[in-house]
Amino acid sequence: MKIAFVLNQQPVELEIEPCETLAETLRNRCGLTGLKVSCEVQVCGACTALVNGLPVSACTFLAYEARGREVTTIEGLAGKDGRLHPLQQAFVDEFALQCGFCTPGMILAAKSLLDENREPKDADIIAYMDGNICRCTGYLPIMNAIRRVAAVMRKRATGDDPTSARSADLGSR
Amino acid sequence: MKKPGEFRVVNQSLPREDGVAKVSGSAIYASDIVLKGMAHAKLLRSPFAHARIAAIEASEAARQPGVFAVLTGGDLGALQPYYGHSVKDHPLLAIGTVRFLGEPVAAAIAEDERSAFEALEYVHVKYEELPAVMDVDAALADGAPLIHEAIHQDGAFRGFEEHRGAKSNICTAVHVEWGDIEAGFSKAAHVLEGEYYFPMAYAYAMEPYVAIADYNEKGLTVYSSAQHPFMVRHDLAAVFDLPLNRVRLVVPFVGGGYGSKSYTKIEPLVAACSWKAGRPVKLQLSVEEAFLTTRGDDARTWIRTGADSEGRLVARHAIIHMNTGAYAENSPLVAKKTANRIIGPYRIPNVKIDCYAVYTNTVPASSFRGFGAAPASFPAECQLEELAEKLGCDSVKFRLANLAERGESIHPGLRPLDADLKGDVRRLACTLEMDKPAPKGHGRALGCSASDAGSYPISSAIVQVYADDSVSVLSGSTELGQGSHTVLAQIAAEEMGVDLSKVRLVGSDTAIAPFERSTGASRTTTVMGRAVLEACREAIAQLLGMAAEVFGAKPEQVVEESGGVSFQGKRLTWGEVLHKYFRISDCNIIGRAYLRQAGDLAMLPPFWEIGCAGVEVAVDEETGVVRMEQLATVGDVGLAINPALAEGQDLGAATMGIGIGLFESLEYDGQQLANGSLLDYRVPRFSDLPRRVDLTLAQNQDGAGPYGAKGGGEGSLNPIPACVANAFYRAVGVRIRRLPLTPERVWRALKDRDK
């Protein structure tokens, strides 16, 4: 069957199998291998993609369900100039990754959290991110990366810091 | 030796070399690789734990649309299909017998995964079920069915085994003994004995096993998620009778290993699929299949420890039974290490340890982060705590009184202890405020361990220095997330006197990188790091000779400086030396180093890996939920080449320890693994993050690695399961000697207490 959707801000039209998952479509047909597949039972969050801004587990989300919607993967997060999204930069700066297999899903879930809640408390971060497993880091560095971006956004919102939340403004470790 | 504060690149928390690739989705893992003309394989797995394969009929499956071939045990006659680095007992596909539920029996190879999967329905297998032994007791019972009837050939790392499955289900027996155990206990004023059970854990590397093999007339190339590409090369060369230079293993980024991807896993099977189908083949396992591939050994330990009236340890006797599963894999070595590690970093004059790795009809067990250290530390550190209480002695003081000093031997024949553990314990006790009472319902405990780590110090490295002052490091170490690419590049940048951005790490490819024994046992920084450092020094020695010629000076007249060389006030960078020497601007030279078990690395282990960590727990008596209030670690790593990475290893390892302490355990229900899926196997999540985390490093530069470094990465896991049980005891006064402390187990134990 044929479906059309917006992928990382570009319209796409694809021929897919009706039973195909979004993970299969994105990895095998679109070559977007930044999306990782792990548990395949919607538990680990590694395959998180954003559909209309909300996180879905692409391992069990049918590609068909994405028709007419906006899909964002990790490849669509950096700016057109190649500059990393503040969350991506914060993950690097806070050592919030090791093997990196959970990282794309983790960053997309965190983006969705911050889009929804610009001033998350620690408890909000924990509750929102509980569906994303990381086996390497022990979570604290990821927590710190999210806190860091949230703090920059808060400063910007209150006018304390009028500059953008790009990497340069996040300071170094 | 330079001290902290004097380094330019090393000992700094510089960003990861792979960070940007990993946050932007461009990092390539084996599962992302596609070869031209590549087929896909799917596996048919045994529905029985133990059965004879009376017949396999695969021709109907081979005729299905899109199918290139179906591989069964009957096809393997031309190969040497048994592999295993300690015991060659593992057929790459079942031959005549299946020994665990889930063992691969046939592989369908087709143009896509779905066609391969659908073809498996047409593979007809006739099984004759055999009696199965599902646990150690059943395996050791009189008249128990034998899991391996033949004596298998030794693998390349033979020497550990006393038994190899002949007339018994004991895969390996290890005995460690010194002093006089009877005389030791006769001097003891206080003796305790007890039995402890450490659960069957699953490493859950988030990237499941994957390999792509291309067997053709030129040889065999395999892309894999393997931790030890050179060891896989060895096994593949043996299976296919190929020379080493015709087998190439390429390992891109690995999505977590924790020991579960060490040694050979699916590579011989995928290579055989390519051999049969005559084209490249990819086999991507699911996580549920990964559960059926490797797990950690569970261990039941009877342990007896005695102390004299002054609180000195005088004797320890332990008998450990490890459930090794259907094939030996790395369990013989895990058993050996477990036997060594149950002694801990303490001075114990009389020791007798008997450790048995026992075959059962369960998923094969192999390495798991820490290699037996946590299964050994759990009974050892729990009993130490119990003994301290019996003596009426503070457990921290009890440990301090018995810990070995730096330079003291804790295990005759092995390297003396290379750490100040007493200092580490004092620091940790201070962080955890062990001298102050914990709030009601809370308990605190700390623990320590010493592991004979680092494996064998056999590593080699090539450092290329270019005329534009850039540098590349060719290393066979795999980047599993531990940060080895960053750390090795930092060492090269420090030695060559260039910025870190000038150094490129060329990763794990056996056709390009020189020999590296393995990436495991926390050895990369210490052993490979030293090889990189020595290769830099060797390059510099060549460059100094070239500089003398360029300057028209005698070799002893030129002066080495950071990043270059000077003579009579004239300075050249290394790149300028090359440019002038070769009279070309894009040439390079090669520095190399080969390490082996010789010189100051003659004595094993290359270093002792220290575990020093503690926790505070809070127990909800109504629900049985144990919650982590605090986690504290002291990473005794000699010198942290990258402190943030070293601390990251400590937190990650300790979090795995918390998982095993509180909820991780594979459970069998009859022949079937009952929780072999992430739906049912519970790993730590965000909400399990301890309320407070204190990570510290001890940097005494007392290791054999570069600048006094020594390995980390496993250490902070090792004492944690015992700490959880000990802190729980302090919180509620109930001793549980079986992990994990699930709410149900805790709730029942509390009910029993209150009866």
Structure description:
The complex is a heterodimer of chains A (about 170) and B (about 750). Chain A has about 170 residues and is α+β, with helices and mostly antiparallel strands. Chain A has two domains: about 1-75, Roll (Ubiquitin-like (UB roll)), CATH 3.10.20.30; about 85-160, [2Fe-2S]-binding domain (DNA polymerase, domain 1, Orthogonal Bundle). Helices cover about 35% and strands about 15% of the residues of chain A. Chain A has helices at about 20-30, 85-95, 105-115, 120-130, 140-160; strands spanning about 1-5, 10-15, 50, 55, 70. In chain A, strand 1 (about 1-5) and strand 2 form a beta hairpin. Chain A is globular. Helix content of chain B is about 25%, strand content about 25%. Chain B has 18 helices and 35 strands. In chain B, strand 18 and strand 19 (about 315-325) form a beta hairpin. The interface between A and B is large, with 52 and 55 residues.
The end-to-end span of chain A amounts to: 50 Å
Q: What is the helix content of chain B?
A: 25-40%
Shape of chain A: globular
CATH secondary-structure class of the largest domain in chain A? Alpha Beta
Radius of gyration of chain A: 16 Å
CATH H-level homologous superfamily name of the largest domain in chain A = Beta-grasp domain
Architecture of the largest domain in chain B in CATH? 2-Layer Sandwich
